[in-house]
């Protein structure tokens, strides 16, 4: 079975084509600047050099047509015909509490996603555009929505509820949803395999650490708590997002700085986090370099980030009543031995002991815990696209069995 995975942004589309018989990537790429001048397609067939194509791409439908054209191109393609594509899996950021699992896309699903656009205005609308573009270009091919929020639908009401009037949850759906669910699920299941235990018998904390970052407590393969909330702004300190703050700061700053709703949103989402603290960058590599030069604010930003992660780790070990594995993933989690070491420092009381020598890995799967560590510590590169392909195949296979 060949599955095309699509991740639609407002002006971009990422894609990967999988052969699910061996779970191999046949080709992948990125279209940028859709609807803007100087659109570009970055395309790579596995085992070959990247190719770049500059053109004018007016909308998502034209972008999808271009993806399909390059996939069947005699020189740069991997398919004889687009009919070889058996299904399309769409990364869908926000499914609210309507969807607890991946689902076949139909008119009703798109209408629900439209309603949820108030909660996810940056993500759901372009996602819907990508779905509709694929429906136009690939009529009759099953389209599956794979939700970032679905994995966290196993959280208990006392975990996902906020302490505000309950009718506001009933009226507006204000609750903790959590994000990065596809990534958390992928690395948790991989950790269980490395532990050589059924996932139903494991207690795992996954740390998806990048510019956007979140932690998830996973008990028996189910998310019981996660650090992001109603939006991806809640939780630990991030690249440009503030994470947890006193809510009164919002109205205080709106008054003192004469900020509009859009202004305060921009400040908390785009100008805060380690960028706001350091005044240097949202890229941890830049901040780490400046900290080594003795920059106090750069060091403060790193210290705040590390401490926020450690607080959530401690809370989640308590919620899980133990820990079998701690997993680091995503850009920072996979590639910064220094950050992993700082987070695990002085955590031996909770059964977490990191081996500094084993920890000297970047971007590759490894166990980095000491022999006496009660919890295994893993670096596991995430693969959200493969997880989306797996979920898509499961939905489509289920449809075939029903028929």
Please explain how this structure is put together:
The protein folds into two domains: 2-151, 2-Layer Sandwich (Nucleotidyltransferase, domain 5), CATH 3.30.420.40; 196-384, 2-Layer Sandwich (Nucleotidyltransferase, domain 5), CATH 3.30.420.40. Helix 6 (181-195) crosses helix 14. The longest helix is centred in the C-terminal third of the chain and has 25 residues, at 296-320. The mean pLDDT is 93. It is an alpha/beta fold. Helices cover 38% and strands 20% of the residues. It has an eight-stranded mixed beta sheet with strand order 5-4-3-2-1-6-8-7, sandwiched between helices. It has a six-stranded mixed beta sheet with strand order 11-10-9-12-14-13, with helices on both faces. The protein has helices spanning 60-71, 107-115, 124-137, 157-160, 166-172, 181-195, 248-256, 261-270, 273-278, 284-292, 296-320, 330-335, 337-344, 384-402, and strands at residues 2-8, 12-19, 24-32, 39-45, 51-55, 87-92, 103-104, 143-147, 203-209, 213-219, 222-226, 325-329, 366-367, 376-379.
